[in-house]
Every structure is written in structure tokens, then in C-alpha cells.
Write a structure and sequence with these properties.
The complex is a heterodimer of chains A (110) and B (113). In chain A, 0% of the residues lie in helices and 55% in strands. Chain A is mainly beta and 110 residues long. Chain A is globular. By secondary structure, chain B is mainly β. In chain B, strand 9 and strand 10 (103-104) form a beta hairpin. Classes of the chains: A mainly beta (110), B mainly beta (113).
Chain lengths: 110, 113
């Protein structure tokens, strides 16, 4: 089993739709969690951290479920500019090891 | 401007010809790391460094070397490149060991023939 798993997609959604991605992780001792965004052929950039209580940043909501070992990202009112690959990141090893999922591709269409 | 700079951005080379990909950050970050990204495999860590003269292997260190003689620089060395090292390479840095906010360079696309 992979340490971090994501559905690769692509998720093709119309503008204005709500879309959700999940990411599962295998190490129950994982310490912290993040979502990154990567545009085609560009470097990944931090989108948001994921907290146990759930957190929101505008149209984006992140959730952590430690019991089931997954994190989620919800995007409301999708924009064309949200089209990208979304990478989940799990931190272990005292903060030294960051494991990236392979990413979920989102395409928002008119 | 705060940034991580990698060079070269694109390189085509031949098997066995030593090459170095440089990485420099101007944010005074302690932690630096190298990743390679391949289709279907995602980003995989090659080496990381927690500070000057402190380096350690990531998940896929075979065929690579690194050094950290200065805080700002973290070069990746391929002593004898092989075709399976054809990939997109990213250097990244962050301010504290326990944060996940990595700042990435723009990437270096390497092709080994």
C-alpha cells in the first residue's frame, strides 16, 4: 500500500460546481497535513494546511479524519482558474519527511 | 524577492557525463530538499538537509549526491547520469523543520540520452 494515495482524476466539472478530493495515508503516526496546488509544468505551491478541527479559506475547506486516516479538500463555486493538480502532503519522521500524493487533476469547464 | 533558484532549467545530456544542478535560496532557510517528479509516481524526495553540513537520504537517493557547505546553496550532483534519471527535478526550502510550507524552485527538466 502506498503511503499516500489520491485518485488521479481528471475531475471535469462545470464552472460553479462543488468538487471534493480525498487523500488517504497509511502511517497513523503522521503529524501534519497539507494541500498543495500545481499548475501544469510549474512548481507546487502551498494551498492550505489541514487541521483536525477543519479549516476554511474562502471557497476552500480542508478536513482531517485521523480515525479513518484521510484528508479532504472541498472547493465550492469552482472557477476556471482552479484548474490544476492538487497534491496532498503528509508529514512524518519528526517533520523531516514530507510524502506527496501523486495528485488529483481538476479541470473546470465553461 | 524571496525565491528558490535552480539552474539549469533544461538540460539534455548523455549517459555517464557528470552534471550538477544548482539550487540557491535567499530566505535564510535551514531546511532544503531535492525532489524528482515522474508521471504516475508523484514527487519523491531524493535528499534533504536540515542545516549546513547536515544531509540525509530521502526515498530515492541512488545515483545522486548532495552537499551543503553554505546555508543558501544545496547542489544536486549526478556523478554518472543514466536514462532512468530523466525527470523533472525540484529544489525546495523551508524555515522550520516541522512546517509543511515548502518553497519550490521552478524545476529543472533533465533528459539523459
Amino acid at each position: 500500500r502506498k503511503e499516500v494515495e489520491q485518485d488521479p482524476g481528471p475531475f471535469n466539472v462545470p464552472e460553479g460546481a462543488t468538487v471534493a478530493f480525498n487523500c488517504t495515508y497509511s502511517n497513523s503516526a503522521s503529524q501534519s497535513f497539507f494541500w498543495y496546488r500545481q499548475d501544469c509544468r510549474k512548481e507546487p505551491k502551498l494551498l492550505m494546511s489541514v487541521y483536525s478541527s477543519g479549516n476554511e479559506d474562502g471557497r476552500f475547506t480542508a478536513q482531517l479524519n485521523r480515525a479513518s486516516q484521510y484528508i479532504s479538500l472541498l472547493i465550492r463555486d469552482s472557477k476556471l482558474s482552479d484548474s490544476a493538480t492538487y497534491l496532498c502532503v503528509v508529514v512524518t519522521g519528526g517533520g523531516n519527511k514530507l510524502t506527496f500524493g501523486t495528485g488529483t487533476q481538476l479541470k473546470v469547464e465553461l | 524577492e524571496a525565491q528558490v533558484t535552480q539552474n539549469p532549467r533544461y538540460l539534455i545530456t548523455v549517459t555517464g557525463k557528470k552534471l550538477t544542478v544548482t539550487c540557491s535560496q535567499n530566505m535564510n532557510h535551514e531546511y532544503m530538499s531535492w525532489y524528482r517528479q515522474d508521471p504516475g509516481l508523484g514527487l519523491r524526495q531524493i535528499y534533504y538537509s536540515m542545516n549546513v553540513e547536515v544531509t540525509d537520504k530521502g526515498d530515492v537517493p541512488e545515483g545522486y549526491k548532495v552537499s551543503r557547505k553554505e546555508k543558501r546553496n544545496f547542489p544536486l550532483i549526478l556523478e554518472s547520469p543514466s536514462p532512468n534519471q530523466t525527470s523533472l527535478y525540484f529544489c525546495a526550502s523551508r524555515v522550520q523543520r516541522n512546517t509543511g510550507e515548502l518553497f519550490f524552485g521552478e524545476g529543472s527538466r533533465l533528459t539523459v540520452l
